[in-house]
Q: What sequence folds into this?
């Protein structure tokens, strides 16, 4: 199932808030619809957010071009700003928009708007295609960590639905399963928005990979009873020292894994690294609407007047992480050193 389809004139986004009960695509023929889809988590997962924002930028540039060359630049700055304001934590959003802005800055004075629009479309398609190749490479590197049949636990959804291809954490799991080294996946349901229950369970069932759904508070007991022997999760932002922001609840899973002597791996493309931040303390954590906690869908489950804390992400300190799987290989501690080497390789 494709997370997004670029139709040349518009972007189709699989509406992930409707899964698993309905498969519906949203037609985005302007950047505002793309921005709203990112905000509402209709498209979600760090790499998918980045790719969707790049296509949103193309649509926004086309809308800006209709206002004439003089107004184009100022209008495009508004497009860029509004897309950047959709979600604060996943750095892939800013990485993709930086790529789009760099093309614009480098080419604006050298060509007519029509030619620039074509270049921007090409860049967005490149981001989309690269993500697919990255998923495959990352999956292969990650699968080398599994040399015997293993049951694993994952949190949230870092699968095909969070990317444009086979996924990051689920890409590793898919490859290791194909190699005969995954016996079962335990999927945390991932409150409050249930990405594990709605999306990961759905994706793995579609691929006929054995999956057991658990509520988040069962992970410790599953580990204590030796029902899993590894954890693989995705990431939304990784800082220069190897600290990892990912879906709220990831930190608790990492602490539990350490207590039970279970390796905890993070799988992420290089676009998820933020080399400008030294530690995870600097990562902006998205706070979301209290209704996501007081309700499940439209059903109220808590008193409306209760005070709610609803951070969408947490940060796992690097000391809990046994390896960070990227498309360039598996990084190990000392992360400051291995991430610096990755940065040099990428020339970013
Ligand atoms: O709020 P979400 O659903 O966008 O959060 C997604 C996650 O936390 C994923 O684990 C992360 O983006 C990695 S996706 C390959």
A:
């Amino acid at each position: 199932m494709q997370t997004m389809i670029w139709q040349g004139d518009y972007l189709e986004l699989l509406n992930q808030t409707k899964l698993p009960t309905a498969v519906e695509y949203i037609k985005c023929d302007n950047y505002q619809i793309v921005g709203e889809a990112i905000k509402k988590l209709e498209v979600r997962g760090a790499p998918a957010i980045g790719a969707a924002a790049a296509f949103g930028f193309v649509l926004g540039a086309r809308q800006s071009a209709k206002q004439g060359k003089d107004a184009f630049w100022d209008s495009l700055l508004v497009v860029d700003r509004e897309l950047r304001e959709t979600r604060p934590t996943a750095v892939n959003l800013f990485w993709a928009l930086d790529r789009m802005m760099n093309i614009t800055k480098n080419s604006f004075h050298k060509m007519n708007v029509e030619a620039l629009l074509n270049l921007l479309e090409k860049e967005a398609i490149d981001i989309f295609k690269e993500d697919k190749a990255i998923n495959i490479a990352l999956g292969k590197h990650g699968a080398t960590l599994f040399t015997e049949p293993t049951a694993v636990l994952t949190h949230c959804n870092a699968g095909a639905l969070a990317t444009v291809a086979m996924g990051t954490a689920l890409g590793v799991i898919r490859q290791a399963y194909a190699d005969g080294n995954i016996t079962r996946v335990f999927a945390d349901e991932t409150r409050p928005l249930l990405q594990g229950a709605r999306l990961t369970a759905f994706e793995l069932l579609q691929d006929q990979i054995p999956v057991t759904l658990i509520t988040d508070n069962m992970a410790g007991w599953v580990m204590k009873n030796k029902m899993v022997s590894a954890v693989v999760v995705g990431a939304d932002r990784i800082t220069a020292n190897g600290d990892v922001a990912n879906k709220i609840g990831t930190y608790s899973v990492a602490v539990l894994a350490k207590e039970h002597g279970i390796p905890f791996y993070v799988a992420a493309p290089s676009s998820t690294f933020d080399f400008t931040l030294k530690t995870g303390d600097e990562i902006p954590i998205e706070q979301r609407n209290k209704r996501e906690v007081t309700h499940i869908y439209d059903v109220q489950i808590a008193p409306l007047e209760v005070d709610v804390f609803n951070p969408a992400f947490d940060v796992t300190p690097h000391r809990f992480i046994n390896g960070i799987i990227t498309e360039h290989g598996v990084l190990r501690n000392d992360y400051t050193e291995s991430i610096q080497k990755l940065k040099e390789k990428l020339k970013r």
Residues 31 and 60 are 5 Å apart (CA to CA). Residues 113-143 form the longest helix (31 residues). The chain has a mean pLDDT of 97. The pocket of MRU is lined by residues 41, 44-47, 90, 156, 158, 162-163, 168, 195, 234-236, 246-247, 312 (CB under 6 Å).
